[in-house]
Amino acid sequence: MYFYGFFYLYNMYNNPVKDWFYFSRRQRAGIIVMLILLAVVPLFAGLLGKNVRHQAIDHEWFIREVDLFREELSRLEEEAESRRREARQSGSAAYAHRLATPELTPFPFDPNVIEQEDWERMGVSTRLARSVGNFLSAGGSFTYKEDLQRMYLMDDLTYEQLASYILLPERPVASSPGERPTRRHSSGPGSDSGLIADVAAHKSPERDISGIRPPAEPLIININTADSLELIRVRGIGPAFSRRIIQYRERLGGYHDVSQLLEVFGMDSTRFEQIREYLVTDSMHIRRINLNEAEFGDLVRHPYIDRNTASAILNMRRQHGPFATPEEIKRSYLLNDSIWERIRLYVAVE
Known about the structure:
The protein has helices at 2-14, 16-20, 25-53, 59-100, 116-122, 126-137, 156-162, 193-203, 228-231, 239-252, 269-275, 296-300, 307-320, 337-343, and strands spanning 221-222, 279-280, 289-290, 347-348. By secondary structure, the chain is mostly helical. It folds into four domains: 2-43; 107-173 and 187-209, no CATH class; 218-287, DNA polymerase, domain 1, CATH 1.10.150; 289-348, Tex RuvX-like domain-like (DNA polymerase, domain 1), CATH 1.10.150. The strands form two sheets. Strands 1-2 form a two-stranded parallel sheet. A two-stranded parallel sheet has the order 3-4.
């Protein structure tokens, strides 16, 4: 009897199956709310969908928009077709008009020495510039400015804008049989009568009374005093090289030897051998650096003085005071004989 009572109490308080089906008051309330939502939400969704399905759709607005789009598309197609017809009818005239107004910015030049980049800088087409370069490379040359007009890609409109800037004489024209040919004088924007006359006189000197052509004076240019217009008179020096020669001259302080032109960017031995006989230099126009006053920037600006050499010169001046002679900088172990020979003509003490 006692055994059955104990077994009853054990099952009542320790039966795990009973715990699975036991819910507290809060849990029972949550279950009730969940059951209500499960019943209400589908019913509400069905009523809402039924209401939406029965709403009328306004097709008229959509049809009006489609009609407006079609009308606009038809108008654009008509305009495009009209433009195509006008282009076909006036295509040749429009092309001729574009050719009639090329945007050229010419400057005085000699077509025998000018480079392709200078042609393009004036606004001339790359094909024409390359054609002129190929003609010159093949051994051709221009004697008169009218010779340039014979180039295949040179049209009349381009030539008219360039003619007054070409540093070549015009082809002589005889007024009557037996009369000595005379030169035509061009005028127009950019013409430099004095320079052109000087170039023409150099290239084609007139005959004297006896009919014998006097020997032409040799063309000799001092590269320490010449400007760009003088330099381009030498065959082989175009506007680009003349600018580089002058820019390097300013950095260097002047040339003491013509062979220093080989240090100019782009100058090769072939071009140098072609032009060297027409060039001279002197030491009178060399600009020297005062070693007792020069700063670091003044020294390193010179092509022959690097940062180590400049620092060595300044350190010697700070330690030993002003230099009495330029040769004193040779006491530095950083200045060997090779460096001294290059810079000795460009340094001085005052």
